[in-house]
Design brief:
Length: about 290
């Protein structure tokens, strides 16, 4: 009797049909599709906050450096008119290296080295390599190489700035003409002057910072925004020490394009076709290096 009862009870059970299973899967897919953009926005938002925190820490390190160097922001050897240099330090040695050493000595960097200037913050201000990595970029923190005993004081620049650096810095090596126009990179820079930001997109890989203008649509403006945030915008550090996320690069002094050389010496033309070069007037932010 018990066996017969179990058989009758089993017959009373009904399995899901294929149509019902498909319906459940369809509902789950719809709910996921609805929720995914919200989850992505939340994730992107938290990364922007972390990136903005990095910018503020870099700003604090710059101000500490300036306090110890007569108000001047970081730079190494400077020769007006010499080409800009973007070095990577690939040495794997524990020997102390001095970026200000005599020419021909270990550690002597070339004149007008932008990335070596940024690296000075790691050498002198106890700021960690993680701070120079945006969480949404492809960069990884600099580990200084594989040999034992390697530290920031053993280096003159990032091991490989294309892998270890997510941010761009105002050109600290102006031409003589720019100096005559009043360009200075120190604590006297204005509150609207962009000192640093997410990596300059440059020209290439789907980006062209020289194409849009101030009135371009947001969709077109994405070509000129940093690749760190997939063209959605960039965190910018200003002369008064605050950092904010902006949706286009025309956010410097007089709506200056912070990623290109200005098109005029008075700031009326906010951009030009020149990405890597000297600023041309006092408020001209030219943030380097560029990704392409």
């Amino acid at each position: 009797m018990k066996r017969l009862y179990r058989m009758r009870r089993d017959r009373g059970r009904r399995a899901f049909t294929l149509l019902e299973l498909l319906a459940v899967i369809f509902v789950i897919a719809i709910v996921t599709a609805i929720m995914l953009p919200t989850m992505n926005r939340t994730h992107c938002g938290s990364n922007r906050v972390k990136c903005g925190s990095n910018m503020r820490q870099i700003g604090q390190a710059i101000m500490l450096y300036a306090n110890e160097n007569k108000g001047n922001y970081p730079r190494t050897f400077y020769t007006a008119g010499a080409p800009l240099v973007f070095s990577s330090d690939v040495t794997d040695t524990a020997d102390a290296r001095d970026p200000f050493g005599d020419k021909g000595q270990p550690g002597k960097v070339a004149d007008n080295d932008v990335t070596a200037a940024i690296f000075l913050l790691i050498r002198t201000q106890d700021i960690t390599p993680e701070v120079f990595v945006c969480p949404t970029s492809n960069a990884e923190k600099d580990t200084y190489g594989s040999a034992a005993g390697i530290s920031a004081q053993s280096k003159t620049s990032f091991t490989d700035w294309r892998k270890d650096l997510s941010y761009s810095y105002a050109n600290p090596y102006p031409s003589e003409a720019a100096v005559k126009e009043g360009y200075k990179l120190n604590t006297t820079t204005g509150a609207e002057f962009a000192i640093a930001a997410d990596m300059n997109p440059g020209v290439g890989g789907g980006y062209d910072v020289t194409v849009p203008n101030e009135t371009s649509s947001q969709a077109f403006m994405q070509k000129a925004n940093s690749p760190n945030h997939q063209g959605q915008g960039q965190n910018v550090l200003y002369g008064d020490g605050h950092a904010e996320f902006v949706q286009n690069p025309f956010v410097g002094t007089k709506r200056d394009n912070i990623y290109t050389v200005s098109g005029s010496t008075d700031g009326r033309m906010t951009t030009s076709k020149t990405v890597v070069g000297s600023p041309v007037w006092a408020g001209d932010s030219v943030l380097l290096p560029a990704a392409k």
